[in-house]
Amino acid sequence: MHDLTQDCRRFVAGESDGLLHVFVPHATAGLAVLETGAGSDEDLLAALVDLLPPERRWRHRHGSPGHGRDHVMPAFLPPYATVPVLAGQLALGTWQSICLVDLNVDNPDRDVRLTFLSG
Q1: Which residues of 19-28 are buried (b: 16+ CB within 10 A; e: fewer)?
Q2: Secondary structure of 2-49 in the HEC alphabet?
Q3: Using CA atoms, how far apart are residues 37 and 58, in angstroms rounded to an integer?
Q4: Is-contact 26 112, C-beta < 8 A?
Q5: End-to-end alpha-carbon separation of the chain, Å?
Q6: 19 pLDDT more than 90
Q7: What is the domain range of residue 7?
Q8: What is the pLDDT at residue 17?
Q9: In whole numbers, what is the pLDDT of the chain averaged over residues?
Q10: At 71, is the secondary structure helix, strand, or coil?
Q11: pTM of the predicted model as reported, rounded to 2 decimal places
Q12: 3-class DSSP state for residue 61?
């Protein structure tokens, strides 16, 4: 899990009102808006292991053992998020962060695309 909130804040700084769209163009990554640093991030990862155990039961079998679950995870954590922006500030709740979640240990390189829609 990687917190993208500061990168997103820098991206919208100086913008007007609008929407920030965050997209991860990868088949094994997703985005979550949640509290971090108080255990919720670890709870999410533990819940994903419970829900999608890294075992050999998955039909998608290339890569590391259990890699098939990495391709199912984005159905639960989509590869996109849209966040309101007010006067160049993310309109997140007090404890909310925008996080990249990627269970795939086979590919550590990830791209994140940020777009701003004014209005």
Answers
A1: ebebbbebeb
A2: EECHHHHHHHHCCCCCEEEEEECCCCCEEEEEEECCCCHHHHHHHHHH
A3: 32
A4: no
A5: 31
A6: yes
A7: 2-104+111-118
A8: 98
A9: 92
A10: helix
A11: 0.91
A12: coil
Give the strand order in the sheet containing 113-118: 89-90, 80-86, 18-23, 113-118
Instruction: Give the total number of structural domains in the chain.
Output: 1
Q: What is residue 58's predicted lDDT score, i.e. its pLDDT?
A: 81
Cα–Cα separations (whole angstroms), residue 18 to 13, 15, 88, 94: 12, 8, 8, 19
Residue 61 confidence (pLDDT) above 80:
no
Tokens 């590919």, located at residue = 107
CATH number at residue 38: 2.60.120.460
What residue has token string 């590391």?
64
